[in-house]
Amino acid sequence: MMKIEKPPAPLIVPSPDDSRLTRRVTGTDQSGANVDIKVPMERPLTLYLNAQEIVTMMTIGDHPEYLALGYLLNQNMLKYDDVVTEVEYDDDLQVVVVRTEHHTNFEHKLKKRTQTSGCAQGTAFGDLLEAVESVELPKAELRTSWLYRMTHTINTMPSLYLEAGAIHGCVLCREGEPLCYTEDVGRHNAVDKIAGWMYRHGVDPADKILYTTGRLTSEMVIKTVRMGIPILVSRSGFTAWGVDLARQVGLTLVGRTRGKRFIALSGEQRIVYDQNLAYVEDESARHQRKGEGGDD
Amino acid sequence: MMKIEKPPAPLIVPSPDDSRLTRRVTGTDQSGANVDIKVPMERPLTLYLNAQEIVTMMTIGDHPEYLALGYLLNQNMLKYDDVVTEVEYDDDLQVVVVRTEHHTNFEHKLKKRTQTSGCAQGTAFGDLLEAVESVELPKAELRTSWLYRMTHTINTMPSLYLEAGAIHGCVLCREGEPLCYTEDVGRHNAVDKIAGWMYRHGVDPADKILYTTGRLTSEMVIKTVRMGIPILVSRSGFTAWGVDLARQVGLTLVGRTRGKRFIALSGEQRIVYDQNLAYVEDESARHQRKGEGGDD
Q1: Which residues pair with residue A182 across a beta bridge?
Q2: Is the Cβ pair B239, A289 closer than 8 Å?
Q3: B237: β partners
Q4: What is the pLDDT of residues A122-172, one digit of tens each?
Q5: How far is Cα B18 from Cα B38, in angstroms, rounded to an integer?
Q6: How far apart are CA B42 and CA B201, in angstroms?
Q7: What is the DSSP letter of B41?
Q8: What is the 3-state secondary structure (H, E, C) of B221-237?
Q9: For B43, which residue in chain A has the nearest alpha carbon?
Q10: Which residues, at least 6 apart from B154, have a Cβ–Cβ distance to it below 8 Å?
């Protein structure tokens, strides 16, 4: 239980002032008047695992190395015991290459499969399901005081969402403090960047809480479980399969988190109701995510 | 311009009362009390094109035939002039098979590619981009009176969103009237179902308006253009590349549509400002999508 974290895992926060991540565009509003708004960038990034082309992702473009590692880990294409020798990012070509010491099991599988059924990506989900079924998540606590502190910080911290909308956020927290807050036009990219950051810096998942602006679907639950994190929180809602999977593996699943309100549908035994609700504010109009992108 | 639509294209509306699409689950709220909520279903559906396994999608499960056809059309795996002989859905196996008279060009390509680079899905996006660059979209009108009628109808009509949240909606309209309103846990599924419905019933895209609850990303713009629809409207925001592509092909792109407000960033010449704004209500709290799923 007492894994030591390699010390300097750099804190990651949103970069609303990074001019490469947004662009100003001029349009027309409902009265026919010119308006000037900021919109997030969206760029293709092609990922290779050694010599194997894996996928082209649409991403806002920050943290390509974390995104690449996290994608491969969360898709079970890279195992936590594979040795990564290099992550090489080429900004001009919009390519990122993850190199491992040995060929990965995934590359071997892919070779075999392409000779038969054509494309291994289609069947990856079945493998993922299998991979999470045997997981045992650590004991942990979710104090409601942490939960409210965390969501208040996330909703009020300067972010690309507040600046330009149309973006998802994902935040890794410990005891209500954000450690790694990523944003991306793809909601899965945001969580994959966190997985890559954790892997790169050897961050222990056991005492962490993962927050997402997106919905609690089967995919999101599977990723959280693969990352070894025992608690997943969202301001959005649930799907039935997401709930089933969470219950099966004992993940604490908390959704519809707004102001005072939340609903837990799995792993409730980890929740400690230590917050006096009389001291929690309802969500202010200013910090309601307007559902214009962040809330998938 | 005067294509005749095959007459009975059945109107499609959401099915909030269909018990196969939602499930009741019991959880715990912020006070520790039991709560009972409805959540949407999410099921895997594996798609074959003839003998070729294409993808496993996560879907709420209605309209699998439309979803299958629309997915293949929107991915450019099926061309509008390929002859579909059968769409076969097996509810038990959760499999849908689209059969064509001849092998499709995509299957040929896939065969060639898998012998070299392994997986053709990764490169599909480049092909799609090429496919839309040559498109010429029809002239059309977007009267603001239609726009407000349309969004009011969509926001107040009974739907799975209002019933269970965590879901995306996509609506094909003509002159402000919804003709096909689909919902799904995957936002791309919702638009793909509309593409399949249009193809199946020979619906002319030239005088249609497509509405989505999701963001206006490059993928959404590409799909709309492939479907031949000249106008795309969303309550959500934009990405920079979505805007660039829309401008390149002359698609009318309207986002952040809430109550009175909207912003057009491309194809503004199609907009006719015929609505007196004094008679448009601001969005009521009741019909704000709460961003708990529908607003990607």
Answers
A1: A170
A2: no
A3: none
A4: 445 667 777 787 888 999 999 999 999 999 999 999 999 999 999 999 999
A5: 12
A6: 27
A7: -
A8: HHHHHHCCCCEEEECCC
A9: A241
A10: B169, B171, B178, B181, B211
More confident of the two residues A229 and B279: A229
**How far does B2 lie from chain A, in Å, by closest CA?**
30
pLDDT over 90 percentage in chain A: 76
Residues 6+ apart with CB under 8 A from A296: A168, A187, A213, A214, A215, A236, B187, B214, B293, B295, B296
Is residue A3 over pLDDT 60? no
Task: Tell me which residues of chain B have a pLDDT lower than 70.
Answer: 1-8, 111-126, 284-296
What is the structure's pLDDT at B290? 55
Kindly list the residues from chain A whose CB atom is less than 8 angstroms away from the CB atom of residue B112.
none
Cβ neighbours around A212 below 10 Å, total = 26
- The nearest CA of chain A is from the CA of B6 a distance in Å of 35
What are residue A168's DSSP bridge partners?
A: A184
Q: Find the closest chain A residue to B292 by CA distance.
A: A236
Amino acid (one-letter) located at B7: P
User: What is the Cα Rg of chain B in Å?
Assistant: 20
Amino acid found at B25: V
Closest partner residue to A291 (CB to CB) among B265, B268, B291 is B291
Residue-wise burial string across B78-105, b where 16 or more C-beta atoms lie within 10 A, e elsewhere: beeebebeebeeeeeebbbbbebeeebe
Residue A37, amino acid? I
Among candidate residues A228, A270, A265, the one with its CA nearest the CA of residue A247: A265
pTM: 0.91
- Note whether A277 contacts B236, CB cutoff 8 Å: no
Give pLDDT tens digits for A148-157: 999 999 999 9
Q: Please name which of A227, A252, A250 lies closest in space to residue A238, comparing C-alpha atoms.
A: A252
Within chain B, what is the greatest distance between any pair of CA atoms?
63
Q: What ipTM goes with this model?
A: 0.88
For residue B77, give both structure tokens. Answer: 């795996």
- Residue range A41-70: average pLDDT? 95
| A243/B290 touch (CB, cutoff 8 Å), yes or no | no
- Choose among B212, B184, B191, B197: nearest CA to B295: B212
Hey, are the CB atoms on A43 and B165 less than 8 Å from each other?
Answer: no
Question: How far apart, in Å, are the Cα atoms of A59 and each of A46, A94, B248?
Answer: 10, 10, 21
Report the alpha-carbon distance of residue A164 to residue B154 in Å, rounded. 25
Phi first, then psi, for residue A75 (nearest 5°) are -90, 0
CA within 13 Å, CB half, A271? 26
